Amino acid sequence: MNFFVDENDRVDGIDKVTGKAKYFAEYQLPGLTYGVLVTSSITKGKITGIDTKAAKNAPGVLDVLSHLNKPVAPGYEQAGGSPMKIFYTDEIFFNGQPIALVVADSFERATYAASLVKVSYEKSAFNTDFVKSINNPSAKKLQGQPPYVRGTADAYKTAEVKIEQIYTMPIETHNPMELHGIIADWRTNDQVTVYAKTQGVKAAQATIANVFKIPQENIQVKSEFVGGGFGMALKTWPVEIATVMASKHLKRPVKLVITRDQMFTMVGNRPSAYQKVGLGATKDGKITGITHTAFGQTSVYENFTEGVVNMTKFMYDSDNVNTNYYVVPLDLSVPIWMRGPGEATGAFALESAIDEMAHALDMDPLEFRMKNDPEQDPQKKLPFSSKNIKEAYKLGSAKVGWSNRKNKPGSITEGAWQIGYGVSIGVFNASRGRATVKGILKADGTLVLQSATSDIGPGTGTGMVLIASKLMNIPVEKISFELGDSSLPPAPSQGGSTTLSTVGTAVNDVCVSLKSTIAELAANANMSTTANFVEVLKKNNLPMIEVTKQSQANQQGKEYSMYSFSIHFVQVKVHKLTGVVKVSKIVSVGDSGKIISPKTARSQMVGGAVGGIGMALTEEALLDNRYGKYVNNNFADYHVPVHADVPEIDVIFIDKPDYIVNPMGAKGMGEIALIGFAGAVANAVFNATGKRIRSLPITPDKVLEA
Amino acid sequence: MINFQYLRASVVKIALSLVSKDPKATFIAGGTNLIDLMKRGVTAPEKLIDINKLPLAQIELKNNVLHIGAMVSNSALAEDSIVKEQFPLLALALQSGASAQLRNVATVGGNMMQRTRCGYFYDTTMPCNKRQPGTGCGAIGGYNRMHAIFGTSESCIAVHPSDMCVGLVALDAQVVIANAKGERKISFADFHRLPGSTPEKDNNLQKGELIVRLEIPTNNLYKNFHYLKVRDRSSYAFALVSVAAALEISQGIIKNARLAMGGVAHKPWRLVEAENFLKGKTANASNFEDAARIAMYGAKGFGENDFKLKLAPNSIIEALTVAKAKA
């Protein structure tokens, strides 16, 4: 097919909307079998027996795997390694823990047989109550990050004006549309092919190699298309290992696709958070002290920490800052980074507190932020590689109509609705790692680029093709970028807003090298150095040339502080009688260097804003702590925003290159699209109503009762 | 697999006989709720009688009574021109329910027969008197933010999830039920039940009976009406509280009033005393507030749903205010 590709379009957009793009669960292998999990119905304790007789006798069943017939996983015998060893012991760590895998010749037969497995337990007392544990001094708390002190600790307490508040957030689940799973095909001579849903094919390959103690090169992990990840596919989960075990044991390919309710317990979540922020300022609005103490939830069997208090250390100019971050181990499954990760959690608390202080000082919150905007990074004491926050403020506030905002809350009314405006900052590391890219420039005029990176939706291939197209002066339709296969040159997992910077730099280096090789070949053939590469290759009788380049993590971190920034402006309407909050206007400004792919970059920001509406207004995974179970583990009751919740979203990019970070001048933006958004909504709700909601999500009942 | 039988009936009589003979047989129409219940293991019928081919999909106005076949889809009913002109409250209630995709396949009869969305009802490892009598109520003392404030019992505080039914109970609909003996007719308000000590029974339909039609008398309530649904997101979310309000106003005086609520009881909750209070009164804010106060007599919260004690009267006031302003 030869269709027109606009430089703004996704290179794989047509494949995605026509169904040509193949996702992991769509691979049809000869002799494919189907796995269905049996899960723990208790929250803590031991399995005393698993009766698999009826299941094994059910039609089509090949076998039932559990710790009783412990499949061989030599890596599990070593100390350390994977913290959750599936089918290894009789221990139950959380409700819904996978404890057996039924494999049958059809999904339906496996599902039925799984219902026939009878498990007996010895129950123990458990604790899944996060808030109760924080307030209980004897409940275990672990240091999640070393304490940080700059200047005097708790300096806010003696400030002229002070704010001291608690902000809470519930568990959020990633729940991309595509369910998690894997197809594992373990063949003779320990050759393994895996069709996965992963953000890192190389990481998945390494994990499987470690557990089964076979060479990495025996394992091929394929994951070309991913139906959303948001962080949950950054890890090869125990249930995926179980599927590989089953394939090895049965000598058949095995497919596992977990159910929607299992998406709440088997593939991580954004942990709930409890944060205390103390903020002190002079009467004329200079911050004199910030104290940020955060608690996150983790599991008893594996620790999880994230950057909840990172932003507090450098975002505002204050001589005195101290932070502390603890995690509370609970009898729940382990969390994992979810878009914006801990920084999004921290930003909600810090940016709410900043807004509270601006109100206490009777200052415009924008003016207050400007006044305390540091010239250099006060934590690292280094200049920023680039930072255009003041310009972002100016552009965003003009677009949202900030001048209509009244500093006094509850000033604007439209019938039964109160109108308010809010703003918040988002910030995330603009880091860069090591990646390898191979380029094959062919005499037919095409360029093929290869790297074992992933695309969970941001448009990785599109960005890379655009970088190459510009450097090589080759039209985008003549360039292809191959990813999502562990046999390609190595690249890190897609996470932490690093892919464009990391892999893009290697693409850049490959292109630079290809150009110089072409120039050399041209000179050898007495051609002009600007001759077209097709002519040069032909003249040299070369069907193609190949170049492989490895880019390195950048070394500028000693001289510069490198971050991407975002500013989110929202207008909300709050119903006076029902407490319903509607986000009625969104302006998100991205300050993330040069924009390589305007259309997919905009989509990133739009997706972040929609996720932000979810975080602010609707998303909450609810636990019944009496049972240690989720009570809304489905898409009807776990509310992700629907179209009707999302107004038109204006995205503005500063679009100024930052060549300190990488040769393209582009910084990552997956996280900043979400970080800060929920704070902007909470601040707007306050501006509309005078009600400060410090507990997410801001549902009608909370507004009404405030 | 549980190999259930699937049969398709095209005549009401045959459909009835197929179900009445077999204790484990059940009707299936749109299936938007039943299939979920089967997948979750809440119910396991051995025989499904598909009634989609029954000739019950007509909407007709006869002698000032609107006849709605039980197999009319929710979207067809909401878009019907007579319904839009003469019963716009019903159209609005229908459009507030579920999602466009669900409304396209969900039927009128099926909507009435849908089960509660209480999480404890759907999780077979949790206690629930409605699913398994005698196991207790998980929601009492548990997660009950979505639950009932009216007509509850010690055994169940679940709510009926329908929006359409809230509109229908406000409009004095009648339910026509077919059985082996012929047809019987009951008022819509008497169709659904309160939980009492038998929460497993959602309604008064007997085994071997089938809803064939609804009848709604025409009225003068098509000018000043509103259906307000307060929910956690703008679409595809069950009501925290919903209100169907319709007023007949003449020279500022309320001649007739209809009020019903959803999301507050085990059945669509008609507010007759508040209606009676409003009749003959001036359509103004203070009377709306008084009506809302009257409507709340006997309401009781269970902790997480205490906010409904405030949200419900506020929603009544808002619905009446919008209804009045519509003229």
Topology:
The complex is a heterodimer of chains A (706) and B (327).
Chain A: H1 13-18, E1 33-39, E2 45-51, H2 53-57, E3 61-66, E4 91-92, E5 98-104, H3 107-116, E6 118-123, H4 130-135, E7 142-150, E8 161-169, E9 181-187, E10 191-196, H5 201-212, E11 219-222, H6 238-250, E12 254-257, E13 273-281, E14 287-299, E15 321-330, H7 341-360, H8 365-371, H9 389-400, E16 412-414, E17 417-429, E18 435-442, E19 447-450, H10 460-472, E20 479-482, H11 499-524, H12 533-539, E21 544-551, E22 563-575, E23 581-591, H13 598-618, E24 623-624, E25 629-630, E26 649-653, H14 677-689, H15 700-705
Chain B: E1 5-8, H1 12-20, E2 25-28, H2 34-39, E3 47-50, E4 59-62, E5 65-69, H3 74-79, H4 81-86, H5 88-96, H6 100-105, H7 108-113, H8 119-122, H9 164-170, E6 174-179, E7 182-187, E8 210-217, E9 224-231, E10 239-250, E11 253-262, E12 269-270, H10 272-278, H11 285-295, H12 308-325
Parallel strand pairs in B: 1-3, 2-3
Antiparallel strand pairs in B: 4-5, 5-8, 6-7, 6-8, 9-10, 10-11, 11-12
Helix pairs in contact in B: 5-9, 10-11, 11-12
3D structure, described in words:
The complex is a heterodimer of chains A (706) and B (327). Helix content of chain A is 25%, strand content 25%. Chain A is an alpha+beta fold and 706 residues long. Chain A folds into three domains: 25-124 and 176-259, Aldehyde Oxidoreductase, domain 3, CATH 3.90.1170.50; 273-431 and 558-705, 2-Layer Sandwich (Aldehyde Oxidoreductase, domain 4), CATH 3.30.365; 433-553, 2-Layer Sandwich (Aldehyde Oxidoreductase, domain 4), CATH 3.30.365. In chain A, the strands form six sheets. In chain A, strands 3-5-1-12-9-10-11 form a seven-stranded mixed beta sheet. In chain A, strands 7-15-14-13-8 form a five-stranded mixed beta sheet. In chain A, α10 packs parallel to α11, α11 packs across α12 and α13 packs across α14. Chain B has 327 residues and is an alpha+beta fold. Among the domains of chain B are: 5-52, 2-Layer Sandwich (Uridine Diphospho-n-acetylenolpyruvylglucosamine Reductase, domain 2); 224-325, 2-Layer Sandwich (Enolase-like, domain 1), CATH 3.30.390.50. At the A-B interface, α3 and α15 of A face α8, β9 and α12 of B.
